[in-house]
Specification:
The complex is a heterodimer. Chain A is mostly helical. Chain A has 2 domains: 91 residues; 209 residues, no CATH class. Chain A is 76% helix and 0% strand. Chain A has 17 helices and no strands. In chain A, α7 packs antiparallel against α9, α13 runs parallel beside α15 and α15 packs antiparallel against α17. The longest helix of chain A has 36 residues. The mean pLDDT of chain A is 81. Chain B is α+β, with helices and mostly antiparallel strands. Chain B has a single domain, classed as Glutaredoxin (3-Layer(aba) Sandwich). In chain B, α1 crosses α3. Chain B is globular. In chain B, 36% of the residues are buried. The chains are: A mainly alpha, B alpha+beta. Chains A and B meet through α4 and α6 of A and α2 and β4 of B.
């Protein structure tokens, strides 16, 4: 092994981008072998090729490495992108933007800026102090957890480009419109008093060192270790569930409860989503199961958005800076946006 | 003696960072004065928006995520 590792380490130090290119080629070669390999493996077992069990196993053996590989690639790329867009840089880009354009920019930056809900409060205050309007800040805070790279990567891998693109577009739309509405209502008075006092004194800009490409590649790898290391059990579980449904469960089972005809299923899905708190990777297996059983796409997307964007723990964190009235407005506006998305989807598709 | 402040509201990464800095300081034999800054208003006054942040002698040297051991060594020397 060391005969292979030493040249790789030297390559990483001297030509990090060449190393990334080599890894990308290996990635594509492995990815293209997965489907034939899964058929070969199932073929080795003493099973009838068209049996339920063979179909389930083949789905599992193909989908698990496929999703993990896709997620690894996406998370690595996002780890590199994130070395260019720190929270500090995003704040400077958004400072002084007006409502409207600012909301769009904030929602878009929410996708690529590294964000963790434990940093929500310093980020919120940092934005306001730098002169980012309240409504624009909210667009960022809604988009950052809801339209993140893990959610998009998993949707792309499991449901294809159309649903991933729809989720991206509608998630951004909810974040932009909700932030715009909150901004237009002029609710600065419902910030906690200590936050309003801070607003007059802009902080010194944090000066952080520029990174080399070798360090950016390291960040990408760390990001993979952190995210993929955390979510892989959800993926294996989700794909196993998907495999069972794929092989055994009859279609249209959920159609009567969560189908398009049941209009009340959209608000119920949103309500169910609020107390549930999990990351995007955890909710997607549920989404997959619901869709496979004949639930309507709008209802399922509304459920997913509600779980990710309206979480009780994040509201408790934000309570430090927002008065209860503003939290209520925040929840109300975002929930209405998600409801609209669910209804429109069920009507149009 | 260097003054090192770790900015963070008590999340897991913040505690890991504090432990790591203590460990590196002991390994290097560097005498430091280590402070935890947990008050939101104080954290924000350094212009840091992702926690944990690290401040060495009044200058922000790190923000977001647990810093690497080599980086800590460089601050403490």
């Amino acid at each position: 092994m060391s005969a292979l590792i030493l040249p790789l380490q030297r390559l990483h130090r001297r030509h990090p981008l060449v190393l990334v290119a080599v890894a990308a080629v290996v990635w594509v070669l492995v990815y293209r072998q997965l489907e034939p390999l899964s058929y070969t493996l199932v073929g080795l077992l003493p099973l009838a090729p068209d049996s339920h069990l063979a179909s389930t196993l083949q789905f599992f053996l193909y989908d698990t490495p496929k999703v993990l590989l896709l997620l690894t690639g996406i998370v690595f790329a996002m780890g590199i992108v994130q070395t260019f867009v720190s929270a500090e840089r995003t704040r400077d880009l958004l400072a002084g933007r007006r409502l409207g354009v600012g909301n769009g920019l904030a929602a878009a930056l929410g996708i690529v800026t590294p964000f963790c809900s434990c940093s929500a409060v310093p980020l919120f205050i940092g934005f306001l102090q730098a002169g980012v309007p309240l409504g624009v800040t909210f667009s960022f805070l809604i988009a950052a957890p809801m339209v993140n790279e893990v959610a998009l990567g998993m949707l792309l891998a499991l449901f294809g480009l159309r649903i991933a693109a729809l989720y991206l577009a509608l998630g951004l739309l909810v974040a932009i419109v909700a932030g715009f509405v909150i901004g237009a209502m002029g609710l600065e008075g419902w910030l906690e008093d200590w936050v309003r006092e801070l607003q007059t004194a802009p902080p010194p800009r944090a000066s952080l060192a520029e990174l080399s490409w070798a360090e950016r590649v390291d960040r990408g790898l760390e990001h993979v270790g952190e995210i993929v290391g955390r979510v892989w059990p959800y993926i294996v579980g989700g794909v196993a569930l998907g495999g069972l449904i794929h092989g055994f469960v009859p279609e249209d089972m959920m159609a009567s409860i969560m189908g398009r005809a049941a209009w009340w299923s959209v608000p119920v899905a949103v309500l169910l989503g609020v107390p549930m708190y999990t990351n995007a990777a955890g909710v997607i297996p549920i989404v997959q199961a619901l869709l496979a059983k004949g639930a309507a796409l709008g209802t399922v997307l509304a459920f997913m958005m509600s779980v990710i964007a309206l979480s009780a723990p994040e509201m408790i964190i934000l309570r430090k800076v927002l008065k209860p009235q503003l939290i209520a407005v925040f929840v109300g506006v975002v929930a209405s946006g998600i409801l609209a998305v669910g209804f429109i989807f069920n009507l149009v598709l | 003696m260097k003054n090192v402040k770790v900015l963070g509201s008590g999340c897991k990464n913040c505690r890991t960072t504090i432990a790591l800095i203590e460990q590196r300081a002991a390994a290097l034999g560097a005498e430091i004065e280590l402070e935890k800054v947990e008050d939101m208003a104080d954290i924000v006054s350094y212009g840091v928006m992702s926690t944990p942040g690290v401040v060495v002698d009044g200058e922000v040297v790190h923000a977001g995520g647990v810093p690497k051991a080599e980086a800590i060594d460089a601050w403490l020397r």
